[in-house]
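Problem: given the chain below (254 residues), write out its structure.
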Amino acid sequence: MHLNLEHITFKAQKEINKILAPLTRMSDICYFSYGENNLDSSCFTLLTHPEYYNNCLIEEFPLCGFHLKSGWHHWDGSLPHQQTEISSSLNIGNGIIYVNHYADKSVIVEFASHKQNNSVKDFYLNNQLLLKRFVNYFINEAKPLIAQAKKETIKPNRAMVATPKTNPIDINNVDEIAKILQKLPLTRGKLSARELECFLMLIKGFSLNEISQATTLAIPTIANYISRIKLKLNCSSRKEMIQKAADSGLVEFN
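Solution.
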């Protein structure tokens, strides 16, 4: 399947690039997409590079918003290799996906930079709240475009909305991750259940305040857990902790 040039996905390109411009100047994020998937599998996507999306439809790649869990995901490990090759041909790379599943729909947002810009990963890691705020800003600024896109939804082929045979690791599954963590080079014992919970949230980009809200633990208590995790993993920073997780195949950030 493919879109014609009169579809809102193409016609909205200029306006979407205009909305993204402030974030581009700040971070070199040059690619952005906002999409919604409905319960009947109809969907729309508005983005800075409609030719990329159209090529993905032509190739009938699985649409990640239908099978990824809520939360942040890196393109590497979440998208088919052939799909990242298409993005690379357009000088787009180092992308991330944010999925939020609601009762009546799913919202899928993607950010990416130029394929040579590996440092943007650090920007993602340290500015996830800013990125979420940008999404809210985009929804407000693009209201007319989103309203029109809802009138021009597409119905992907069945294969595009099915769960792939091989999924990325679900970092929300504590039991699954506990097994993976046994591969980490722990130097001072294994992580307790609470330490594991804090570790998983930390490498997903949660702040201490967000971890506190999710776990009902006091921030000083969480800080103590994190200090102990650093000792056990022989890490001096969150970046090193994430690298340990990446080395084990737990996450794709590095």
